[in-house]
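Try this one yourself first.
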């Protein structure tokens, strides 16, 4: 998150404070190019990723009232050097950033919170008009498109003296700013981090502990591998409701275009943890990677895991996964930390007191899907120095600690290790550990086309509509064709 943000606006109106993922883009509204420092929309927020905050919003969670459309909050006026505008999509983190940015000492900052469906297109329409916000918050998958268009500034040299790069989780530093992958050229820094957490019914685990130990000769605890998670899920599924739940595990299995990257970001982390890869980013070769024997093993595994969930879950999105735990039908899920606030809200989640949180497991290796978004300076800003000062200010440790106190997820290791962050929410301690394992997928301009191929085929496989090998071969062929057409002379250098 949601990367991955483009689903369930209805859920967002009630839930999501900070959401997942690397975000999504299947916009439905037509944006209008906007000049810098103009008022823009703040609608109900999205679905994909990150921790509690005030108002509520995939590629995310606490209760709040939806913000009215076409509102903007700006920093207070005073003896400041000028004005800046930041653009994000409308969800609780955007509202939190609005309040935080009032403290920026050098400029009056207007945080423009646009409807999620307009987020990508509004920014890129503004880019086309060589205007818009001074500072833009982009999903990690948008970076290639922005860089190739010349729309965001190269921050590589500036970061060397203004950003404490050694204090950032390396994968996050790369995902939110580096393009092309492995180039050491940076066009942004982290705005909001996210990854996927393990959520489970601790009361159900306790009730079943003796029977589970009698059957498997080991304690029932937070799983340390995907195969152990599957074993626990099968145990509960086969128990026929004995412990108060009918199902072992569910997640966001949806594979349609409206679901952006939901099943993909679930399965990718299993593939990586089993030792597989989506592609070779240095050669842009997909054949032999996503359809490898290891990938087939990972998809066959996921098909078995799918069988432990509720009927009809093949179209489950984030809100259904949350509800499966909160309503009491299911024992476990993995989902973006951005939905954490939905679980701890006792008014909307009747099993809130019975839930506990842990790190999503690995397997032969340990990788978790990266969500979140980056902070970038527009190439068209007329306030370059102020915009860079704002980025430096927001990324400073003191401000990142304040951001954590508002429910934000930082990518700075020192902030994640702080008591301020760990005590901000019951799942934050596990986030601090989980975020060390994050990994992202392609951030090239063709990602959306490639993504939908993968989403459709993965869903067909786990729901039993297609053999796993056929699904992976189809993905490999179609994605390789997309890449070869876009890059006939090989990868971008």
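Now uncover the answer:
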């Amino acid at each position: 998150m949601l990367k991955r943000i483009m689903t369930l606006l209805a859920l967002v109106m009630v839930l999501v404070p900070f959401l997942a993922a690397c975000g999504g883009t299947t916009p439905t509204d037509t944006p209008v190019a906007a000049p810098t420092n103009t008022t823009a929309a703040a609608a109900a927020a999205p679905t994909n990723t990150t921790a509690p905050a005030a108002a509520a919003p995939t590629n995310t969670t606490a209760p709040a009232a939806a913000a009215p459309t076409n509102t903007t909050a700006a920093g207070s006026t005073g003896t400041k050097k000028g004005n800046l505008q930041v653009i994000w999509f409308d969800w609780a983190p955007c509202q939190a950033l609005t309040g935080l940015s009032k403290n920026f000492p050098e400029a009056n900052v207007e945080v423009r919170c646009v409807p999620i469906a307009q987020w990508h297109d509004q920014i890129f329409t503004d880019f086309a008009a060589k205007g818009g916000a001074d500072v833009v918050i982009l999903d990690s998958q948008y970076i290639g498109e922005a860089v190739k268009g010349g729309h965001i500034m190269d921050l590589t040299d500036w970061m060397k003296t203004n950003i404490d790069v050694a204090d950032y989780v390396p994968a996050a530093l790369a995902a939110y700013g580096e393009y092309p992958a492995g180039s050491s050229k940076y066009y942004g820094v982290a705005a909001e981090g996210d990854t996927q957490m393990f959520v489970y019914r601790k009361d159900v685990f306790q009730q079943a502990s003796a029977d589970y130990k009698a059957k498997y000769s080991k304690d029932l605890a937070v799983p340390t591998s995907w195969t152990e998670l599957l074993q626990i899920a099968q145990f509960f599924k086969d128990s026929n409701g004995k412990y108060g739940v009918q199902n072992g595990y569910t997640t966001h299995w949806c594979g349609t275009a409206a679901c952006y990257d939901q099943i993909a970001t679930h399965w990718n982390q299993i593939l990586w943890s089993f030792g597989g890869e989506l592609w070779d980013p240095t050669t842009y070769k997909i054949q032999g990677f996503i359809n490898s024997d290891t990938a087939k093993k990972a998809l066959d595994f996921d098909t078995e895991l799918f069988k432990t969930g509720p009927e009809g879950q093949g179209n489950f999105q984030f809100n259904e996964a949350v509800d499966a735990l909160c309503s009491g039908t299911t024992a476990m899920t993995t989902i973006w930390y951005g939905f954490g606030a939905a679980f701890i809200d006792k008014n909307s989640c009747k099993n809130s007191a019975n839930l506990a949180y842990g790190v999503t497991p690995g397997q032969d290796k340990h990788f978790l899907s990266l969500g979140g978004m980056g902070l970038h300076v527009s190439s068209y800003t007329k306030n370059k120095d102020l915009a860079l000062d704002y980025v430096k200010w927001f990324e400073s440790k003191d401000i990142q600690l304040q951001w954590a106190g508002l429910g934000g997820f930082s990518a700075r290791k020192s902030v994640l290790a702080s008591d301020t962050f760990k005590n901000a929410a019951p799942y934050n301690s596990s986030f601090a550990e989980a975020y060390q394992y994050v990994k992202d997928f392609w951030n090239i301009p063709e990602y959306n086309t490639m993504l939908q191929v993968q989403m459709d085929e993965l869903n067909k496989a786990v729901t039993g509509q297609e053999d796993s090998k056929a699904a992976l071969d189809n993905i490999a062929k179609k994605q390789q064709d997309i890449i070869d057409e876009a890059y006939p002379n090989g990868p971008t250098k």
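Discussion: DSSP finds 19 helices and ten strands in the chain. The two ends are 27 Å apart (CA to CA).
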